[in-house]
Hints:
Residues 9-388 form the Major facilitator superfamily (MFS) profile domain. The chain has 398 residues and is an all-alpha fold. The protein has helices at 3-25, 31-38, 46-70, 72-92, 96-124, 127-141, 143-158, 161-182, 197-205, 208-238, 243-251, 254-267, 273-296, 302-328, 335-357, 366-389, 392-397.
Amino acid sequence: MDRHSFYPLFLLTILMVAVGQMTQTLYVPSIPMMAGDFNVASGQLQAVMACYLIPYGLSQFVYGPLSDRIGRRPVLIVGMMVFLVGTLIIQVIPHFAALLVGSFIQGLGTGAGGAMSRTVMRDRYNGAELNRANSLVSMGVIFSPLLAPVLGGWLTELFNWRAGYWFLFGFGAVATLAIMAWFGETLPAAARQPLRVGAAYRHVLGNPKFQGNLLCLMATFAGLAVFEAAAGVLLGDVLKLSARTVSVLFVLPLPGYLFGAWLSAKLSFRLTQGKLMRLGIAFLALGSLIILVPGLFGVVSAASLVGGAAVYFIGSGILYPTATSCAIEPFPGQAGTAGAILGGMQNLGAGVVTLLAAGFPMTGQVTLGAIMTLMVLIVALSFVWLRHHGSPHEQMAI
């Protein structure tokens, strides 16, 4: 891996993803204040994440194939502009409906960064180097959701919840200018694909290896999203903790993801995909049970919520770069399409699961634990799928 060419791309990739990651979590400590301002129940604020994640996922189905035809850079710039429009709508129209519409438009915009973050590394790397590059990006990206809730809680207590959205607008503008100034096109004109969109999607989706890894990513990310949406309600409304305390507790599990991604990078040249996946699934299962079991006894505990999430996040950090690399590697000519499907489906799935979870009363942690456990079972099924449908060589590796 050429470090001189890797680091600028690495930093810009983190920046483009950080805008979307911070938008997803910065408002969480502000949920009680936002609910009071809009005169709605706190549980209804879970719909904000769903309204953001669903278009974030759907838009990637457009951005990915488009980037295979016209390049990555113009797609990124357009997406960032759309994000800025959505953020302004939230600020200038003081209604709950505008918050949902603005979140929807924000998701439409940041979907470009989500799709391209999986694609630009494939443009440059393959094999174990691709897995290591994706692991390093995962490690770098985790700092934005670490910072966002702390920043959101601080801005809420110092000013109000809208200060967080003004920060997002400024951060998005800086990211847009950085991409325009320093992002070099990673897909040369000679490498762009003339395949029709439908043919490209059939080619990618018809691959059983891609299907199994896609299912793994969708379920893993859905578990993360449900925790992020429910944690603010459980910690703020049920346990009655302050916005600043919620923001600190909310980020405590996230270093687990950093550790998991570090493990994936460290072990990428030593262990097979199957062994890395087994390790990740074990952490996911243990984390979900730490949350579920106290919930079955009617206990709501910050320690079990944070501790269980931290263990679950370790498993996610292992699985995310591993499954992403293995899914996208067979498609050098359709990396944008493959990345779009991965990002689109996992975020769409997470948005749907989060929206469904918002329909259940979040007065205890049993609902959260049960949903996360269900997602772990789906991840395990994806592993069985990969073992059954892989080539003999791949089956031995898994």
